[in-house]
Design a protein that fits this description.
By secondary structure, the chain is α/β, with parallel strands linked by helices. The protein is built from 13 helices and twelve strands. About 45% of the residues lie in helices and about 15% in strands.
Length: about 290
């Protein structure tokens, strides 16, 4: 395993560029967001957008990574198959998979959002999601790029949804982007969070790492979704989720990918403090990896 970080998080930490932030943190892998306009942020010039459909722009991205010694470990996509443009989203995702294949990126984070799923019912949401994911996988069958559904939002943190999608699609290229904080955010008791992680550990393709520190008396209670998250979200080393346990669960399942920093507590700190928060996150996770 190795430590990575989201490009958005690096810039939220106040660094002038992704490359400079990773150098300060001693991290050499990054997850890069790709917008619906096919744009990815330059690693050296954050105001420059690169079009992943363009051979020239992909060459720029390749040059940035080779010159800095940084690897892109994943692309991040914010899809929503509950919208009317699902066909266009599939086409967008296929383009991103093909770009990832060219760049040697093995994983893509996909979102579990299906707008309006409550009205259509969970079974229809499962079928709709699985149908569109199958299209992406079928149209990119000649690549070795894997898709990791993040346990995100009110739908994706339901184990029954994730399991049903995996069963319906039935592809080794589809798995989970394990967000270590989101099952807990959803309201699952802490001990149950680890049980869910064990259930899906063998399917993990990529991760997002964050933490929450709830009062001790409610850690094992079923809480409302997102209960006072803004108040209790915290730096990764300081929360209730023991990431040494998380890393052990992943190792036992054979996972050798990244632990990707997605610290959502940065907004609670001054711009001057955020770099130190991320440095603590990075050193903490690197220490866990070194023990494995």
């Amino acid at each position: 395993m190795f430590v990575s970080i989201r490009d958005d998080v690096v810039l939220h930490g106040g660094f002038p560029s992704v490359v400079e932030g990773l150098s300060f943190l001693g991290i050499y892998a990054v997850e890069v967001s790709v917008g619906r306009d096919f744009s990815a942020r330059s690693l050296t010039s954050p105001n420059q957008k690169l079009d992943i459909r363009s051979d020239n722009d992909l060459t720029i991205l390749e040059r940035e990574t080779s010159q800095s010694g940084i690897r892109i470990c994943a692309f991040l996509l914010g899809n929503d198959f509950g919208r009317e443009d699902a066909k266009e989203q599939v086409e967008w995702m296929v383009e991103v998979v093909n770009a990832a294949h060219r760049l040697g990126i093995s994983a893509i984070r996909v979102d579990a959002i299906v707008s309006g799923w409550e009205g259509m019912g969970i079974d229809k949401a499962i079928n709709l999601f699985a149908e569109n994911i199958k299209k992406v996988l079928d149209e990119t069958e000649n690549t070795d790029v894997h898709l990791g559904i993040e346990n995100h939002g009110t739908l994706g943190n339901r184990p029954e949804f994730l399991q049903a999608v995996f069963d319906a699609v039935n592809s080794p290229r589809l798995g989970l982007t394990l967000d270590s904080g989101n099952f807990y955010w959803f309201g699952h008791p802490l001990s149950q969070v680890y049980e869910i992680m064990r259930q899906f550990a063998s399917r993990v393709k990529h991760t997002h790492i964050k933490n929450i520190s709830y009062p001790q008396e409610i850690r094992e209670q079923q809480r409302p979704i997102g209960y006072e998250y803004g108040k209790y979200v915290c730096p990764i080393p300081d929360g209730d989720i023991d990431h040494e346990v998380v890393a052990s669960i992943l190792k036992e399942a054979g996972y050798a990918g990244d632990l990707c920093i997605e610290d959502e507590s940065l907004g609670k700190f001054s711009p001057e403090e955020r770099r130190d928060v991320l440095k603590r996150d990075a050193e903490y996770l690197k220490s866990l990896v070194s023990k494995l």
